[in-house]
Amino acid sequence: MSSETIGSLVGRNARRLRRDAGTSLDDLARASALYGAAWTPSRVSDIESGRGTPSLSTMLVYCAALTRTSGGDVTLPDLFEGSAVVQLTDGLEVYASAMRRAVGGGSTAFTAEDVPHANAPGSLPEIGDHAGAAVPEGSRLPSGADRAAVALAVSAMTGLADTRAAKTLGLDIFELTAWSYRLWGAPFGLERDRRAGPEGNAQRRGQVTRGLFSELRTALAEGDH
Questions:
Q1: What's the chain's average pLDDT?
Q2: CA neighbours within 13 Å on the CB side: how many for 44?
């Protein structure tokens, strides 16, 4: 089975969801402005065509805008529907079902069942070893954290909000991601947007961000006790 990119999988599902909802490119573009994106119809078309890898914020805005126009409830995992094999990194392919689980708040500790040809060279055990080596030795991870899973989560799920939060807290991105999953089962940016809600403005997101910072600082001060 050949693989496809994250952008291709997300774009294909986004286009299907929009068409099923009877929403036009123009309608979705207009709705995006409510979430600070102000996309053009051609920008929406680019997303649906799978050009590049969409950021977390792009996927969330798309879901929010389509939810707004369709009256349904479009979620992030809906963008990862299907049985395709997805090229997660240069060295790792996983089934779309594993991506769907991960973005839905489930485990990012991919197992052999999540990986095609798990016994082939370059498959999960070997990739896991290499991925774990990307985490700096001095990173303050929660006890028992799987270094490979943390590295893969950083590669697949972190965005600008996570990078900024790590800098503000004086953490590396691996520390922030590991503690975010320990506390909330999701990366920082996704948890912020979930708590702020689809109607959350900049002020609301700022309030939520400060609350998350407080929870993270407490967890870091207490460790795993």
A1: 85
A2: 27
Q: How far is CA 106 from CA 58, 69, 100, 141, in A?
A: 21, 28, 8, 19
pLDDT band at 156 (very low <50, low <70, confident <90, very high): low
Would you place residue 122 in the very low, low, confident or very high pLDDT band (cuts 50, 70, 90)? Answer: very low
Which pair of structure tokens corresponds to residue 193?
A: 């947007």
174-206 pLDDT tens trace = 899 999 999 998 889 889 988 988 777 888 889
User: What length does the chain have?
Assistant: 225
**Contacts (Cβ under 8 Å, ≥6 apart) of 163:** 173
CA–CA separation, 96 vs 83, rounded Å? 6
Buried b / exposed e along 56-89 (16+ C-beta atoms within 10 A): bbbbbbbbbbbbbbbeeebebbbbbbbebbbbbe
